Amino acid sequence: MLQRYRATGADLPFADLRRAHGVAMEGYFWRLSDPASGRVIVALCGIHRGRAGSPWANVAIAAHPGDFIAAADLAGGTADPAGLGVLVGEGAFEAGPARVRADLGERGALDLTLHDVHAWPRRVLGGMGTGQVVPGLSQHWHPHVLGARASGTVRLGVETIDLDGFRVYAEKNWGRDGFPDRWWWGHAQHFEDAPDTCVAFAGGAVTVGPFDTTATALVVRRGDTLIRLGDPVLSPVRAEVGGGSWHLRARGPRWGVELTATADPQDAHVLPVPLPARGYSVAGALQQFAGDLHLVLRRRGRIVYAGRSPLAGLEDGGRDAVEREIERRKVTA
Which domain of life, per UniProt (predicted)? Predict the structure, then answer.
């Protein structure tokens, strides 16, 4: 019974949300950033189930400054239903709670170890709050590493970079159909005078059976304090996204958050979006690697922190960009 419930994408309270659920898309994402050099590295892997039930994976490494991206769709791949674990091919991608390794041949490779991890604490609900327990949602999201110290190396073509000094953020998303028709996302750390602060948000179109709406989840870690907002009744998040601007406002019984971010759409990396049933991914996620994000945090109406991060990751995505890429593939096939 529990397995069938989790196969809808839902989880019981106190569950480990990093575990695979058995849905069509299990997505894993790591973001590394270093304010001293201005570099940002992204690694991602998705394990998907095609129409015939056969598994396939999409893997990518991307970097800023520049527009570097190495990506591949690969046959096979497994995601661990007992914890955080991903394995694709013979060394193409392998990940666990403290280690991530990827090898895309001459195009790029990553060998990352996480230290001093600020993991999502054991608590009733995860990043989506009450949405966690609702079966049949089209998309789920959970940030499970809200800051860690990196060691290792990344190879971008012929250039190799030492990852000492980088900070790490990691999340998981999963769903029955892949990405929604419309979505927005963001992450930032390295705030002014607040190295122990991390913020992440994810929102977009959500469907449950015949019903559809939009929703946004917002998480802030400040030291040992974790703030989660986005409950439709207790702590709703209002999001205005478009044209290179992200503005989120949220208020709960104790905490209030206002977040304003900007980035030039022309500077976006184009990351792969998986189409699980089709068996391949398309270049359709426009992600800014170094946006400007301002955060204001209030406790019972009083400002307790206000600051800026110059290395924010930001996305404003939609089905239109994905469909354009699908049509382009048909023309060039």
Answer: Bacteria
